[in-house]
Amino acid sequence: MARETEQIDPTMPDWSAYRGVLIVVEQREGIAKKVSWQLLGEGKKLAAKLEAPLMALVIGENVTHLADEAVHYGADRVYLCEAAELRNYRTRPYSRVCLKLIEDAKPEIVLFGATATGRDLAGAIATHLPTGLTADTTQLDVEPPPSRLLLASRPAFSEKMMATILCKQYRPQMATARAGVFQALPKDAERQGEIIRIEATMREDEIDAQVLDFLRETGKLNLEDCEIIVAGGRGLGGPDAFKLLAELADALGGVVGASRAAVDAGWISHEHQVGQTGATVRPKLYFAIGISGAVQHTVGMSHADVVVAINKDEKAPIFQFAHYGLVGDLFKIVPAITEEFRKRRTLFGIHPSSVVDASISTTQTLTEATFARERSEAK
């Protein structure tokens, strides 16, 4: 039987020269941002569906080791640009390197971390090409050939729905993605790949901006690196209830998080916010207490290993994302869980790192109406 010929839409431009997925690796002082390796993990899936190579771009000074790491995290080919003028991020020299590489390598998809640097760089590149750019994506997929379209999804309409955005008329297709949404592949130090050195395109005397110094914030909470988070929402009723959450977080060796509603109400500072306009997290254990489960929040925490929801409304959407749900009065449940964990740590020497494994049996005994919902494979 003859094989059917792929049907190409005659109204679409011919982008056959553009192939492959490119991840722009973000680094500072020779240390890569975790989102870069997470995007390599997701990029590997996209490249496999497109039957195309996965590429990475590393820019900086003395960053050869990051090119090797990019290979270890899944890149088939790494472009490495090292120069003294690239030591610190500046929009013009970095964007010039990216634009030249895109012109030469012609990737069909280019992905950046949705960090301050990634957003700035991606916006500058998209403007110069020109092409479309989808910001702060939380889901990525591709249509199979012949369309090869990137399906970049993010919350929309006041963050109550998910919108999938396409770039049909231009290449490359570009997007920034939130940290913590995707998962990095296991690092394989034995993995081999191609590393290609490319030249910087600007000299120092051609760059108007100079970086004089970095003013580092100290003591700032970084939810993205936390393994245990106890988050509260509008259901807490006011700022005083966050003291209960802080006590539970302390007993677990975790930190306090919050929904947008709680932050907007002024009950807790923005650095604690989890969600589309806050942090995207992937902890081992996540408590969602008095949180209804709006899309704005769930896109930021749905990838937690274990989610425990506490809410008096058994129909609250948060239970669709929870592995374990506790229905009842949080002002009775939370102190009871806190006390139980304190006993376990005191009597049996349980450390915060092992509390996660003990949490399930504990929470199932401490509520007026308890039910467990195993997350379906579809979610």
Give an overview of the whole structure:
The protein is 28% helix and 22% strand. It has helices at residues 34-50, 64-72, 91-105, 116-128, 242-252, 260-264, 295-301, 330-348, 352-363, and strands at residues 21-25, 27-28, 31-32, 54-60, 77-82, 109-113, 133-137, 139-142, 150-156, 161-165, 173-177, 194-197, 228-232, 255-258, 285-289, 306-311, 324-327, 369-372. The strands form four sheets. The chain has a seven-stranded parallel beta sheet, sandwiched between helices. A six-stranded mixed beta sheet has the order 14-13-15-16-17-18.
Structural class: alpha/beta
Query: What level of helicity do the residues show?
Result: 25-40%
Mean pLDDT: 85
Query: What overall form do the CA principal axes indicate?
Result: globular
Question: Within the largest sheet, what's the order of strands?
Answer: 7-11-6-1-4-5-12
